[in-house]
């Protein structure tokens, strides 16, 4: 097991320079962008004094390398600074927005997986029958549709024409669970539909691979029932690559969710980043990108580390 | 005897019940107004933006304030006496005014507030306009008696009172020294205004409570002055950044007032029976700017040709969905100084435009036009200009930038032509000021005609309205001859309120006012 | 194999339609896609304007066609960028190994840690909103994926006998790399490139939707969708067409990608 432990240790260690590089890239990219956050806030009647005082308040008058050093120092203490736009602490902004994005993403991916894996297995089991073709066709179609377009269409139908569901906004679960659900249905449904396509195909492909393998035919020869074969041999091995896919999907979703949040006007992390970039709110952009990168790295780490659990053949080497 | 006693008792009882009911009724009245972002601080003039000013000015009041027609009226001052040489302003304070903590308003409080306003560390927006760098130089402030404050200026300044009244300078609102704690740290504003600062839940709302002891002026509500009696018990400024969510909140009753809805929403909401609309002419300006130092555009004939190739009434109608009227002057329509000379709008004349272009030797070279999608009007006007100008053979090449980058180009003058929008200027001098000046010192200014600058400086010293109108008319002629900028229209601010709200009225400066407004309890 | 052929044919057909529209638009469109016509704003589809007009009175069909050309050109160039640089760097890293490889992987991982869209977003705002900016930005965002695949192929290939043989004969490392190792990567690379093409189309339209892609008034499917949003209730057709086109392209790419993947994967049995 020490092999495993050293593996984890080494992986964790190598994430550090990656994260530092991310921080560096983030910091400098943001400052290369033309435009001044202070000007954006103060508007067209700003006086030179106002601008100078506000810039000093946010340390924007210091040389850039010094700003970076100060920021890194803060970050290592867990302080991401304050938003220039509304003076709120970046960390609490990030966390509250992250809750919104994460809730939707987790619900969607979980439900999508619950639908996709059985569907993929079924398709693989009934390979080349009409059912299989139908499932694959459906999945391919679903994953081809751009998420924001699907969202707009669903919004149009269920929100505007039929007026069954609300069209904009968000209610947190803590405030009102029933209302929260109503606001969540459309965006989650959009995500689920798209991801089901991707995951079903993945599950089917890996299930098909496993079904071909000799030890499965062996198992069947031994007299195990179809169900047992499916559950004990095919499922876990088919699940492994799907599990990796889930990791990538989760990590990627947090980044790509900005468009969906725009369509459904959800106060999530994606929109926070996009708005902050437009407002040149450096602390928020930096904090957000760093945070997203961290999540992505952690998710992938967990996925990598759990992989051996699903596939005993894979050793952590 | 018994009967009348019983009668009396029952009357008293009924009265008490009714009184109780009334109190309960009044306790329920909360007016909910949406703001699109959290305020930055509660300290007037310090660390501010438009939303911050608006909230703060419900709590504090200044010596003077702006009226609807953008002239200056008295607020905390009973009278303002200006000496013959124009250098000494004597303010007599009104009687019986008390702060929210019960203390009476005295001249000392004015001095206390003024000291904080003029502290350079606080970066008060109007500081350059009172310390000699801009419009006026206040050399001394004194309180000869508890009811009198005397400001002495170095030279006469026509716009001194206007500066004190500016809403983006918190109207120079007066607050009590207990607003600051023993160590000098700001606590919360204790002013004389119709509402008290109660509660600020960051990123959610700011709540104000009625000032029961508010002593109102006898003149009717007018801009930031006049009768400001609070009719509701609480005002809650609800923070909703997103426009669509705001609309939903209004329709569901979560908020009572949206003070500024987008032009595309006007059509939808006016059809909606459950919502009332209120229109107010704004005093901002949507314009096209030219860089007169650009090699191509330095030729006034080309600028004039562009001006003649556009159809202004059409642009205004299309872009604002019929809400605003075209206005070709630097001075916005609602201004008291907007008269005949300002109201003229040139007719579209493609032939004349082509002639001028030929004279100037223009051969279809592309002119780069920068704009942004941040404000839909900026983009829409650019697209229309491109289409219309092409009929005269002018080739406009539109580049869409994000807002901050556009602002950057504006501030540094690094563009050939651009779409831009100016926030409200309440005095014509300020309107001309915003776009003219020394281009070397302030690259964002578009007009540096020396004669015009001289006239402009004069307009700030002269107080007589007729004399000022003459100066502005002359400036208008020069402006239209030089075409450093093309004015398109002043936007209309449309507010949407729920039917339960009575008495709400928008006005030129655009910020909502919660006084004089009542709402039926739910 | 029959199903594969159907996939391949269908995919190629869809892409062919889109490509065809794009190609035609270079020479001819029903109307000038940029011509503003204020009298004809927001007209529903009719015989004059098959797909209706937008909020400036411009013909939607013409804009879709031009948008096709824009989107396709940007996507092809981006994929070319990513494949070119990813392959070169991946070959180098996989072959050389050691510290250089490690460092390159750290940089690559750092770039991968940014969701592709956001990295492109950041670069876009610096470079400014133009076609070339998007190509560079998205290209950089997708290079790490190519890099990884190529590097993995190289790592597995370099131990093979024909590589040893090549060295024994006396070929230089460079020759060995290009003539023997590189062809080994072709299969996964082709499959990846096909998928990537789809991702890039999606990413570009997503960026345009957010306001950071190829800027208006030039039509791309993404910014057409973005402009359609405020008018959704009055003019549904505005949002339908561009989205449908993106979906069609993606479907074509996916089907074709499937066919290619199955063709290149030697383990697939004939079913």
Structural descriptors:
heterotrimer; A: 317 residues; mainly alpha; 0% strand; C: 271 residues; MetI-like fold; 9 helices; 74% helix; elongated; disordered C terminus
Secondary-structure map with pairings?
The complex is a heterotrimer of chains A (317), B (522) and C (271).
Chain A: H1 2-32, H2 37-42, H3 48-57, H4 64-76, H5 90-125, H6 130-144, H7 147-161, H8 177-212, H9 214-222, H10 226-263, H11 269-279, H12 282-310
Chain B: H1 2-27, E1 30-35, H2 50-56, E2 64-66, E3 72-74, E4 77-82, E5 88-93, H3 107-117, E6 138-145, E7 148-153, H4 160-165, E8 195-201, E9 205-210, E10 234-239, H5 243-252, E11 257-258, H6 263-271, E12 276-281, E13 285-290, H7 300-308, H8 312-319, H9 340-343, H10 350-360, E14 367-372, H11 376-390, E15 396-401, H12 403-412, E16 417-422, H13 428-435, H14 450-461, H15 465-482, E17 485-489, E18 492-497, E19 501-502, E20 518-519
Parallel strand pairs in B: 1-10, 14-15, 14-16
Antiparallel strand pairs in B: 2-3, 4-5, 5-7, 6-7, 8-9, 9-10, 11-18, 12-18, 13-16, 13-17, 19-20
Chain C: H1 2-27, H2 60-96, H3 98-113, H4 116-127, H5 131-157, H6 161-169, H7 173-210, H8 221-228, H9 237-264
Helix pairs in contact in C: 1-2, 1-9, 2-3, 2-5, 2-7, 2-9, 3-5, 4-5, 4-7, 5-7, 6-7, 7-8, 7-9, 8-9
